[in-house]
Amino acid sequence: MRIKLYELAGKDDRRFSPYCWRTRMALEHKGLEYETIPVRFTDKDAIAFSGQERVPVIRDGNNVISDSWAIAEYLESEYPTEAPLFSGEAGRGLTRFLNVWADRTLHAALIKLVIADILEHVDDADRDYFIESRSSFFGKPPAELQTRSKADLQAFTYALSTIKASLGMNDFLGGDAPTYGDYILFGAFAWARSISDFPLVPIDNPVHIWRERMLDLFDGMPRSAVAYDP
Ligand SMILES: N[C@@H](CCC(=O)N[C@@H](CS)C(=O)NCC(=O)O)C(=O)O
To answer: Are residues 104 and 19 in the same domain?
Structure first.
């Protein structure tokens, strides 16, 4: 039976969740058959069976798993003979570090640059929910948060600087081939690309060159997603 991936979707079937992108890339990496079920922010009933309110969620036979990190660990233990996501225990530990860094540092810097653009692409039914939930979380509405001030641009560039240095040495964070760490980082860029045409990284930057490489993986599946800069 195919795995079901419940995935955030906006207008025009835009898939714009960084966490759902991590899971989608992990499923592709393992070569597992899956189908995606689009979910809007306010479709909480559609994922109520998972006992929580966020995507991604996967249903694999009788197993239901939520949270992109828990899903990656599940796929690795349930499908050990498929391509490894972590390359062993040390790889898993270091990737866990990257997961926390991306959630806390990279996403925190990126959201300020694109949050109002997200609003343009959420489903109409989600518009009020998005404004209210994000205004409450950040203390101001999306339009006031996305000023792209010099300080906000510098914070994003600074957050990426370590990754930039690392990607200047290897094709992928995982070395010669991508591993789950690459998918964590790519989630942020797939998210931004799906809802914003703001140029985050200069085209001669190793991060941009890596992003192009990532877009070509899996027969170009990521590149063909509804997005800017196709
Ligand atoms: N730690 C979770 C975060 C998942 C998450 O925050 N997903 C967002 C979509 S990007 C969501 O479902 N938000 C629901 C909401 O804001 O109501 C993971 O890694 O999967």
So the answer is: no
Closest by alpha carbon to 214, among 172, 158, 166?
A: 172
Separation CA 76–CA 2 (nearest Å): 17
Q: Which one of 16, 45, 54 would you pick to mutate in the ligand 1 pocket, going by the greatest count of ligand atoms within 8 A of its CB? A: 54
Q: Which pLDDT tens digit goes with each residue over 111-134?
A: 999 999 999 999 999 999 999 999
Domain count for the chain? 2
Q: Which two tokens stand for residue 17?
A: 């969740």
Residue 118 located in a structural domain? yes
Other beta carbons within 10 angstroms of residue 132's beta carbon come to 11
Ligand 1, atom nearest to 55 Cα: 12
Q: How far apart are CA 193 and CA 195, in angstroms?
A: 6
Residue nearest to atom 14 of ligand 1 (CA): 54
My answer on whether 58 and 106 are in the same domain is no
Q: Domain range holding 10?
A: 3-78
* pLDDT tens profile 87-103: 899 999 999 999 999 99
- Within-domain flag for 211: yes
